[in-house]
Amino acid sequence: xxxxxxxxxxxxxxxxxxxxxxxxxxxxxxxxxxxxxxxxxxxxxxxxxxxxxxxxxxxxxxxxxxxxxxxxxxxxxxxxxxxxxxxxxxxxxxxxxxxxxxxxxxxxxxxxxxxxxxxxxxxxxxxxxxxxxxxxxxxxxxxxxxxxxxxxxxxxxxxxxxxxxxxxxxxxxxxxxxxxxxxxxxxxxxxxxxxxxxxxxxxxxxxxxxxxxxxxxxxxxxxxxxxxxxxxxxxxxxxxxxxxxxxxxxxxxxxxxxxxxxxxxxxxxxxxxxxxxxxxxxxxxxxxxxxxxxxxxxxxxxxxxxxxxxxxxxxxxxxxxxxxxxxxxxxxxxxxxxxxxxxxxxxxxxxxxxxxxxxxxxxxxxxxxxxxxxxxxxxxxxxxxxxxxxxxxx
Length: 394
Ligand SMILES: *Cc1c(COP(=O)(O)O)cnc(C)c1O
Hints:
Helix 2 packs antiparallel against helix 11 (274-288), helix 4 (111-122) packs parallel to helix 5 (137-146) and helix 4 crosses helix 9. Helix 8 links the parallel strand 7 and strand 8 (232-237). The chain has a 7-stranded mixed sheet with strand order 3-9-8-7-6-4-5, sandwiched between helices. It has a 4-stranded antiparallel sheet with strand order 10-11-14-13. The protein has 2 domains: 24-50 and 290-388, Aspartate Aminotransferase, domain 1 (Alpha-Beta Complex); 56-288, Type I PLP-dependent aspartate aminotransferase-like (Major domain) (Aspartate Aminotransferase, domain 2, 3-Layer(aba) Sandwich). By secondary structure, it is an alpha/beta fold. It has helices at 2-16, 56-69, 84-97, 111-122, 137-146, 158-167, 190-199, 221-224, 253-262, 264-267, 274-288, 291-307, 330-342, 372-388, and strands at 33-36, 39-43, 103-108, 128-132, 149-153, 173-178, 203-207, 232-237, 247-252, 314-315, 322-328, 345-346, 349-350, 360-365. Bound molecules: pyridoxal-5'-phosphate (PLP).
C-alpha cells in the first residue's frame, strides 16, 4: 500500500535524524524513585513539581470519593455529568486565584482542551490572537482552530508585541502566552503584557501550567505580581504541580459563562470523573498550605544551579522547577541523556520540533519530593559523564 510505504519512509527518516521518540513503561507510582522499563531510576522527568502525584491524602480523598460517586461521570457537564465535587472545585479555584473581582472558574479534562476552548470561543475570523513564539503547542492549535489572525511575536519581546498591536485592525484582540515556558522555565513579563492589553483593549490569556502551585505561594504567576484585572484570564493545569489531572480557566464571570455556553471542547466531551475533582479539592488545600514544599523546591533549584558550574553545558536562567540544560545537537542531547540513564538517572532529552533546532537539551525538572542528595547524585553523574567522555558524539 502506497500510504504505508510513504509513512514507513518518513518514520525511518525521522529515526535517522535522531528524532524518533519512544515511551518508557513505569512499574510504580510517579515520584523521584521509579522503575521504568524494568530499571530502577532517580527521575527528573515529570511535572510533579510538589510531589503530590502519589500523595497519601490525595489518594485517600480520591478513593473515598470513588466509593461515593463511582468511577465515570457518565455525561458531559451540560448534560448530566456535572457533580458536586466539580462545582466545589470551580468555586475553590476561583477564590484561590481570584484574577479579578467577580471571578468564576471552569474546569476541563485536560489543559489541551482548555486552551482550545478558550481561544475558539473568544476569537473568530474578525479577531486577532497575539502569541509568544515559544508558547505551548495547544495555544497554537487553539489559535489556528479559532480562524482568527494568528500573529506570533519573538519570545518575551514586549516591543514587538506593541508594534503588532498598534497596527492591528482586528475586532477583538487576545494576547496569549505561557506564564512559565514549558521547555525553558523562564517567566513571561506578565505585568508589561497586561499594561499593553489595557492600552489596546485586549484580553490577556496566561497559561500557567507550570506556575500554578509553584509561584505566588501556589496561586500562580499573576498572583505573585498581585495582578488583577477583568482583562486577565488565567488558565492552569491540574496534572502538574496539583498532582492529579485536568485543567481550569478563571476570569471574569461573563467570560467564563461565555465559555460554558459556547466552547465546543467544553461542551462536547465527557466530564472528568467526579472523584478526581474530589482529589483535587484535597490537592488544592495542600497547595494552599504548601509553603514548606515550595521552600524546599527552591532550595533544590539553587543547589542544582551551583553544582553545574564548570560543565560544557549550561542551564538556562530559570527560577522555576524546569531547569533546562542546553546541549545543542540532537545526537549530543540523546547521548548525554543516555549516559545518565546508564548511571541510573532519568533526565529526558528534548529535541526539535518541541524546541528550536540547535537547542536540544535535557529538561531537568525538580520536585519537592526530591532530597538534597538526589540533586547531588544528578550533579555527580553529569560531571562523571563529562569527565569520561561518555556523552561525546562520535
Ligand atoms: C502541559 C501543558 C498544557 C496541557 O495540559 P494537559 O493537561 O497536559 O493537557 C498546556 N499548556 C502548557 C504550557 C503545558 O505545559
